[in-house]
Write a structure and sequence with these properties.
mainly beta; 4-stranded antiparallel sheet; about 0% helix
């Protein structure tokens, strides 16, 4: 059973920075994308950033220019560098790894890490 473990969450002041990391407990093959999502209280989970196996990235408009996603494919880790944090970035952040093998897609999710931005 593969588990994704996030780390790096915590309390940070507005304007500050935080780096989140996500590591898989076992090697995962056939990775399509690795990404970060977040869910604020009372809101739906939303995409923050995603990176493909080829290195292409996509960001939510709300974080463009402030957040940077990166990955280490060999180690199955994905990180999210968050700069210029705002109160509205407060949420539980989840990492997700999407795979496709023999035509079957599968998503792995982490348990989430809380990021709280104080204004």
């Amino acid at each position: 059973q593969v588990q994704l473990v996030e780390s790096g969450g915590g309390l940070v002041q507005a304007g500050g920075s935080r780096r989140l990391s996500c590591a898989a407990s076992k090697l995962i093959f056939s990775i399509n994308t690795m990404g970060w999502y977040r869910q604020a209280p009372g809101k739906l989970r939303e995409l923050v950033a995603v990176i493909t196996s080829g290195g292409s990235t996509n960001y939510a408009d709300s974080v463009k220019g402030r957040f940077t996603i990166s990955r280490d494919g060999a180690k199955n880790t994905v990180s999210l560098q968050m700069n210029s944090l705002k109160a509205e970035d407060t949420a539980v952040y989840y990492c997700k790894i999407e795979t496709t093998a023999w035509g079957v897609s599968r998503d792995y999710w982490g348990q989430g890490t809380q990021v709280t931005v104080s204004s």
